[in-house]
Give the backbone structure.
Amino acid sequence: MTGPEFDPPAGTENASPGSTAQVVERLGCQIVEGVKPRDRHLTVDAVMHEFGITRPMAREALQTLHLKGLVNLQARVGATVLPLERWDLLDPDVIAWRLEVAPDSQMRSLTELREVIEPRAARLAALGRSAEICHDLTGHARTLLALSRDPHFARPEEGAAVRQRFRDVDAAFHRTLLRGSRNELFLHLADPAVMALNHRIDRDWAGRHREATVRPVRAVVGAGAVQSYPTRPEPIAMWLHMGLAHAVDQGLPMAAEAFSEALLAEIRSGRLHDRGVRDKLRAGLAQFDANGLPAAHRDGFREAMAAVVRARRAPVVVMGVSGCGKTTVGEYLAESLGAPFEEGDDHHPAQNLASLRSGIRLDDRSRSPWLAALAGRIRAAGPEEGLVLACSALRRVYRELLRVADPDTFFVHLVVDREEADARVAGRAAHFMPASLVSSQFEDLEPLDEDEAGMSVDGTLPPERIVAEVQTELARRARTR
């Protein structure tokens, strides 16, 4: 990597247009982004030439990156870019660069780290029950609740100071929790946890440029993705902070762990309503003394917790023409929700299946016993268990029959065009629906009307992204009920 193309320009030896820290940041981002790919050699001369800096600055920058694990320095070779698994992934700069370059994957990793350590730290803090930790946690929880209610919070400019204060107190709360564990390794992980907290407010705040009703940005990755920060902090998140702080104060390790897990589930699309999370929270609340909260907060806390643990899960029907992906998406969605999946076609009478295999179109009369069976399955679904059903539900009258079984039934229409449906059905082996009947499905199709509870999604998107969008909408609906 030596030669004329890497010779520093005239005067570079004494030039210092930027600080070493700036060069480290620019080089670090390039490595994280892949502009400087794995096994790429970076000589001092090359760095001098690229950034117009002095030789000592170039050496110092490469040494700093070496300490962060991004490059390996060797005599007479220079620096070699290392693969991700060699990086110091807990280094604050590396985390910041990854958040800049690939925020979704880095936030997912940071949140998964928090999900491992924070509930355990909460348990240990409750066992230790340090007077100082209890005092700080409960004080921070009260301050967070008050700041979240500040009328200026959602205003882009006027609320900046409030959001900064909220961010600082939230960080202090979680640092205190980790400190309360009395585990030095947990405390060492406080910086990554705080960076994840700050990122959601600083860069993902959905209301940064507008004043609006809470409306989180749709996720673009898999179900359970970390949601962007809402216009205003969710009240349930504030009450979970309050419960966690006072569970530690009351010396209830299981309850503290349950509140911590629920708090982390709240930032995931739909996870707070997972049966396992709610069951554990319910058990924690059975031990918890709500009278130990400040009098002004007791009723609000009780109402918020009741809304979570008693919330019912509406059935979800994944609908659309044959070949739109109902079964695939339905199975993914059911798994992400922790709900049972039901294949609607399994409820067709044998005569219907025989007709379809023969290329005979079903009419309303032949569909009637099928729809009645599906309505029965919806009625049988447990209010906490939920249900995901794959069913064409092509006409509004069919959907109304299913809504009679449960008025809260939510429909997800997977939209594909005729050409896409034809290609998919033609490519399926051993399926009763022949390609010749696809046209009749489009003839019968009545898209969702505006007054119907449901959403339409592009059926050609990856199933994971479809599920993420559905999860986001279901979470929004749960909050606004």
